[in-house]
Amino acid sequence: MQADIERVLFDEPAIHKRLDQMAAQITADYRDLELTVIAVLTGSLMFMSDLLRRIPLRLKLDCLDVVSYRGKAQTSGKVTFKDMGLPDVADRHVLVLDDILDTGHTLAAVCEKLEMAKPRSVRVCVLLSKRKQRARDVNADYVGFEIEDEFVVGYGLDFMERYRNLPYIGVLRKELLEAML
Ligand code: IMP
Ligand code: MG
């Protein structure tokens, strides 16, 4: 699996150091508020678990299972919710967690859906944000790292459902991506 990685962008210590800072910021911002964290599965699993254990607030956690149909490495723009139930976030302050902000389709769809439940506020927290022109205008309030527009895997992020279990974030070798396109 390691042989498929062109280069490592963020190793475990770098990720954990950044999570310490993000968690401190979120803890301070929400210290007196009723916080509900909504994690977008599956990519945000590792991020969610490592970040939330650093936030000592009495928060609630819910997960949304979202499929954004990707032609291998590109989002099609069609976002489907696997479980159609709406989390009970009425009057709550909601923080949406996702692994990466790319085109913006996924987070735009998630935020629109959550707004229907009349939350008090909705903010977005992503581990990675790609520097690029987005298809949908999504503002991430908390960003772990900004990266170039390259395909990355590891620490929850996949390529065709693989590599999620890498402990670091790396760029996948281009030949592997191209072979699948
Ligand atoms: P968006 O809807 O294009 O913003 O894409 C968001 C989703 O696409 C993320 O939650 C990821 O699951 C996936 N994604 C986008 N870019 C990458 C990448 O570089 N590596 C792995 N997954 C990605
Ligand atoms: Mg995902």
Topology:
Blueprint: E1 5-10, H1 12-29, E2 35-41, H2 45-52, E3 60-71, E4 74-81, E5 93-101, H3 105-115, E6 121-130, E7 142-147, E8 152-153, E9 169-172, H4 174-180
Parallel strand pairs: 2-3, 2-5, 5-6, 6-7
Antiparallel strand pairs: 1-9, 3-4, 8-9
Helix pairs in contact: 1-2
The protein binds inosinic acid and magnesium ion.
What are the salient characteristics of this protein?
single chain; binds inosinic acid; 35% strand; 181 residues; alpha/beta
Describe the structure.
This protein has 181 residues and is α/β, with parallel strands linked by helices. The protein has four helices and nine strands; from the N terminus they run E-H-E-H-E-E-E-H-E-E-E-E-H. Helix 1 crosses helix 2. The strands form two sheets. A six-stranded mixed sheet has the order 4-3-2-5-6-7. It is globular and about 50 Å long. It binds inosinic acid (IMP) and magnesium ion. Magnesium ion binds next to loops.
Brief description of this entry?
The protein is an alpha/beta fold and 181 residues long. It is 24% helix and 35% strand. The chain is built from four helices and nine strands, in the order βαβαβββαββββα.
The largest pleated sheet is described as: 6 strands, mixed
Radius of gyration: 16 Å
Through-space gap between termini: 20 Å
What is bound: which ligands? inosinic acid, magnesium ion
Q: Tell me roughly what share of residues is in helical segments.
A: 10-25%
Uncertain segments of ≥5 residues (pLDDT<50)? Answer: none
Shape: globular
> What's the count of strands?
9
